[in-house]
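Assess the record.
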Amino acid sequence: MSALTITPIDDRAAWNDALRQFETAHILQTWEWGEFKRATTGWQPLRWAFRRDEQLVALISLGVRRVGPLSLMYAPKGFVCAPDDLETAEHVLASLERFSRRRPTVWLKVDPDVVIATGLPASPDDQPNPVGQRWQALLARRGWRFSADQVQFRNTLCVDLTQDEEALLAAMSQNTRRKVRTAEKRGVTIRAGTLDDLPLLYALYQITGARDGFLIRPYEYYQRAWRDFMADGLAHALIAELDGQPLAHVILLHFGRTCWYFYGASSSEHRDAMPNYALQWAAMRWAKAQGYAVYDMWGAPNDFVESDPLWGVYEFKRGFRGVITRHLGAWDYAPHPPLYWAYTRAVPALRRLMRRS
């Protein structure tokens, strides 16, 4: 097979149009996500197209961040190629490895959106994906290691939106379906959010963070994410209200064939009106109406046990009967092993020692 040629793409429309050609196109590989991370966290995106005989076969949006004289490299949910094209995948990995060795790179991280299995592990529904298994073997053979730092959710639940609405509703658990109907009976209404609602969206997010015990970033971070993606037609907000009072919201990101439930928040009032259930049903209906084939609920436990921090969220999500989808996860390549060891082992250990002293 002929070698790959690598060319940069420096135009937003050209990049996104190329990305849409791949079934596994992910919102985190879009032009807009690269620019968002550049502006908010300092990751500088490098966008490369890989072609064979003039035919596009792979893409990567590779973020590079400097830590003093050192470099970190990360391609969120990338690179992107046909999942069963392992030969192209190996060529891309080799190119990335060569690039990382040319500078003092601590690590190079990729987490391609490749499915390794579906269903609950060790259950009758557990179905290994042979393609994902071959990807895993390829990475291990080339010296990559499964990362201790899984930046994105490795597991999720995906709802097939090619079904009609009656089938989607009928597939839900009886309890979830009842709560969707309870919200309707209680008078919960759903409206689309606009850019004018950004302060409201953030206020609900603050309430949720305080109640559920997770840290949130400053308003400017979310304002940039939500505003820019909404303005660019890649995000859609839905707000649940009761008698005109906002109770909850979801913010959906959408690209290619997939719509992701990326952000969600709720107040502590009128929770018995089940606004979150109404929102999920409205989100699925909206995504289906827009022509998306998959509704990705964006996040499930790493370990499917009750002690996992995502277990409560998973119990809510699984009532909508999405398929548990387990991905390859993030893998690290260490072009200079002593740097990798120092950064991932020695430096954190030294910091813990200093905090105890």
In short: The chain has two domains: 5-113+129-150+329-356, 157-326. The longest helix spans residues 337-356. The longest strand covers residues 55-67.
